[in-house]
Amino acid sequence: MRKLFLTACIAAALSISAAATEEVIPMGRTVGIRMTSDCVLVTRLTSVDTNEGSVSPAEAAGIHEGDLIRSIGGQPISSNDELQKAVSLSGGQPLAVQCEQDGKERMLTVTPARGRDGVYRIGVIARDSIAGIGTVTYIDPETGAYGSLGHGICDADTGVLIPLGSGGLMESSVESVQRGEAGDPGALQGAFDPTHEVGTVRENTETGIFGQFTDPAYYQSLETMPIAHSDELELGKAQILSNVSGQEVGRYDVEIIKIFGEDDGFGRSMMVRVTDQRLLDATGGIVQGM
User: The dihedral of CA 117, 123, 128, 129: what is its sign?
Assistant: First the structure.
């Protein structure tokens, strides 16, 4: 009997509803993923060009790249617009800033600088949302709960996990593939329809994103497979499901060449080698987004 092996990290983070069932729907299909954060992430520190010269109020206050700004001047901050408004209306008066990095909270004081254009700034470039495409791993046929990616969605500049405020899944299509090469993991490239939401994003974790499909038509006609346990994993031939063109999901041959223990410090479950020439021709191997 064929069984579905979820990677160790995905299996460990199965939602309660999915963990309670013995079968799930293996997907391998891409979706558009949109996330907005519940704060802003500092991706870069910059200088403010004033009449007296260039200054960096954020750096002087002790703000670092990768910091999460959760409030400023006593007001919760969940978007760049809110951050800019609070700073602009400060009149140059010191503002209390609640920052967080690596789970540690810091309270700082920043004094905005007045630029030559008359606008007050603190000298940060921040991110409050992210969007792209990724592959859904499984869906619980009873509840629509899903797991996707097998890794968290992080900021490309700082590597910090994006703190989730809200998020959604949208129907997508793979339009091209940036082939993987030595030293370059490559990536799936595609488009999604922001008006056609098919699910929610409820968690963004180190082991993947999790949520629920709200459109059963996306999966209700697909077959389920039994979930295999980690002690059933063996070296040898296997198959993966992947969507590398349009919306078509293909089945491709791979070989499991190494099995990692459950206590692997990097969250790995297995190492596979792609043996299917069709997939090698299309992508060069496993690329980002698969």
Answer: positive
Hey, what domains does the chain have and what are their CATH numbers? 8-36+129-283 (no CATH), 47-122 (2.30.42.10)
DSSP per position, 244-256: EEBTEEEEEEEEE
Cα–Cα distance for residue pair 214/204, rounded to 1 Å: 18
Q: What angle do CA 150, 155, 161 make, to 5 degrees?
A: 55
Around Cβ 92, how many Cβ atoms within 10 Å? Answer: 12
Whole-model pTM: value is 0.82
Task: At 271, list the tokens.
Answer: 């190492």
The pLDDT tens digits of the residues spanning 20-39 come to 568 999 999 999 999 999 99
What is d(CA 65, CA 126) in angstroms, rounded to the nearest whole number? 9
Q: At which residue do the structure tokens 């299309």 appear?
A: 282
